[in-house]
Amino acid sequence: MSLRITHLSKLYGKNIALSDVSIEIGDGEFLCILGPSGCGKTTLLRLAGGFETPSSGSILLNDTLYSSPEQCLPVERRNLGMVFQSFALWPNMTVRQHAEFPLLRKKYARMDAAEKNRLIDQALESVGLSTLSDRYPDELSGGQKQRVALARAIITRPKILLMDEPLSALDAELKISMRKEIQDIHRMTGATILYVTHDQNEALAMADRMMIMKNGRVEQIGTPEEIYLHPRTAFTAAFVGKYNLLRGIWDHDRFYEESSNACFHDRTTCSELKEQNLFPVRPDQFRIVKQGDGIEGKITNRQYCGREIHYSVDCSGRPVTVYAPVREDYDLNDTVVLIKKEETD
Questions:
Q1: Is the N or C terminus of the chain more exposed, i.e. has fewer CB atoms within 10 Å?
Q2: Residues 217 and 284 in one domain
Q3: Does residue 295 sit in the same domain as residue 257?
Q4: What keywords tag this UniProt record (predicted)?
Q5: Secondary structure in 3-state letters for 217-228
Q6: Residue-number span of the structural domain to which 282 is assigned
């Protein structure tokens, strides 16, 4: 089974929300759609779910047409589950009643009570809520509420799960534990997951592939490793890997930084960035020293983060971010030199 999105666009009046998006998503694949607010990622999810009709292009599940400008299969006829950004729970319904709700649809009218109860028990057990089945939403924590939404989405064993920033309302520590929950559910159900987020860490941690979007268009598609280690556009480099984009001149595999005498040798930078005279360097790829052949700068900010210190360095009026181990401790206004680790380590 594959979900094929072909030349998909969506206009709201004269505003372009989505422009010429194409991707084929494999059976059981976990695809993260990543980008800043307003980039079109939620619009794409709504089109995949049948909540919107495309202005052009199509969505097919195998040979079944899900969406086109002329035809849009109703939501209830698509074999999918949806987890919203908000928990979307009814205050007068228990955990068990929320899980049961999808089974009240007409298509499950002939299912006997014993089978329904088995599915409900299985769904609640899979998300760790068996002992909380009689509680109401106001008696649950944020993580428990999200598990209710997950149970409700997976109870009918849909082929496709659509998730629209499901962890955005949770605190940082709870987000990490819920990532594992979602990965476990993915392995258990084998569903194809389209997961919308603006959080790079979520996408890198969970995705089989990532699709980076900007202004309604696709910037880059690839595995987390490909996106993080080999960005193909300046936006992808800055948004996902937090790369510093140095300006200068490329001479084959050598880059000469414009504000210093620094020369860097690199064989991995893509041609698209070379053509723009950009050299992407992640904050962890720089090393700060007192003297040496590199880019001179001044420490303008430092943040102690436990295992490392995050520095902002002013280099001829341009800010450069560096992540350094705590043993390399520098003070504000220190004059330093930035060198790329591969040159000395």
A1: C
A2: no
A3: yes
A4: ATP-binding, Nucleotide-binding, Transport
A5: EEEEEECHHHHH
A6: 242-343
- Sign of the Cα torsion 247, 201, 88, 157 reads positive
The model carries a pTM of 0.88
221: CB partners within 8 A, 6+ apart: 23, 209, 210, 211, 212
- Nearest residue to 250 (alpha-carbon basis) of 275, 268, 231: 275
Sheet holding 80-83, edge to edge: 80-83, 160-164, 192-197, 30-34, 209-214, 217-222
Kindly state whether residues 207 and 97 are assigned to the same domain.
yes
Q: Is residue 237 part of a domain?
A: no
CATH classification at residue 274: 2.40.50.140
Q: Which of 228, 263, 293 finishes a domain? A: 228
- Half-sphere exposure of residue 320: CA atoms within 13 angstroms, side-chain side: 33
**One domain for residues 74 and 129:** yes
Could you tell me if residue 234 is inside a domain? no
Sign of CA dihedral 319, 323, 326, 328: negative
Measured CA to CA, the distance from residue 309 to residue 323 in angstroms comes to 6
Candidate from 69-73, 153-157, 192-196, 299-303 with smallest mean pLDDT: 153-157
- What is the C-alpha separation between 182 and 161, in angstroms, rounded? 11
Residue 168 domain-assigned (yes or no): yes
187 and 261 housed in the same domain? no
**Residue type at position 146:** Q
pLDDT, tens only, 173-219? 888 888 998 998 899 889 999 999 999 999 999 999 999 999 999 99
CA distances 128 to 42, 151, 199, 314, Å, are 28, 9, 25, 49
| Cβ atoms of residues 288 and 338 within 8 Å | yes
Place of tokens 């097919």: 60
Q: Which residues of 258-282 are buried (b: 16+ CB within 10 A; e: fewer)?
A: eebebebeeeebeeebbeeebbbbb
Query: Terminus-to-terminus CA distance in the chain, angstroms?
Result: 47
Same-domain check for residues 266 and 289: yes
Which domain CATH number covers 93?
3.40.50.300
